[in-house]
Design a protein that fits this description.
Layout (H helix, E strand, L loop, with lengths): L7 H14 L5 E2 L2 E2 L4 H6 L9 H25 L8 H4 L15 H7 L7 H8 L10 H5 L3 H12 L22 H11 L10 H14 L3 H16 L8 H20 L20 H24 L1 H19 L1 H14 L1
Antiparallel strand pairs: 1-2
Amino acid sequence: MRTTGPLAAGIAATALALTLAGCAGPSADALSYEDSPLGQYLSSAYGGDLSEEEQQKKWEEQQRAQEELMAECMAEEGFEYKPNVQSSGAFVSGEDVEWEPEKKEWVEKYGYGIVTSPYSENADEGAAEEYVDPNQEYIESLSESEQTAYYETAYGVPPEEDELAEDGSFEYNWEDAGCQGWAQHEQQGEDPWQADEFADLRKKMEKLWSSTQESPEFKELNAAWSSCMDDGGEPGFSAQMDAQQSIADESSKIYDEAYGDGSTEVDTESPDFVDPSSSPEMKALGEREIELALVDLECRAQTSYMAESLKIQFALEEKFIAENKADLEAFKAAAEQNN
């Protein structure tokens, strides 16, 4: 069988772009995450200098080409497959959604945007047209064993439990991901960010992000914020990101309790099954999220948290660029050539 794989370079590119944007919110005083030295330095490598219209057009062209290649691969393996552009989705711009966690009226509605998110609301609005999988009728005509073979050929064999990390993630390899991965690799080529040549750069950049919050400047800023949270009736958080993470952890716990650990199949069609997203527990968590986020917002304002954190982050990025200029230039050149 031809070696293959799903999700590939596009996901790696997206993950890198989000990482380069940092953990900061949209804008704070005169600074914004868009001012990130690393973000500006490398945005053009993945088409960040294209207009939204140009990005949309490029995305659609890539999806069409990829689906045609996937159909060829599936045919060679003895299966029918109709190119499914609809299932590939559309390029989603952050400009389509108002993400304003520094505004009180936004926080009063969404909190941190975890339980209730403007992105999910926007997706619901765009899902008015009923989705139809052009391959569903063919898949249903196959026997159970043939369907298993179909999905494994299309998307690869799911990883074994011992291949998963503690958080359920696993290292992606396009060669293990079926015809979809092969098609993505053929259409997009090798993602230079995953190349051995840049392994040291990846490790250094990961260390930069993981160590930023441990810098003396950040510790001092978090201490001031934490003191404010104590005064506001929300003790127990030593760093600003801990407050938001506490809600994310509780949300994950509710989903885990509903769907289990994956060792047994959950019958979501059973009348006894409760969708965790609409459960009483999730509703209560949403209310708790807004309550916590409002105190957090006030403390961020009192400590100028966003502006100060961006100053600290950007200074560390500038130092990183100066120390790794040659490697960054090499990566940028490789990424631009790959595009």
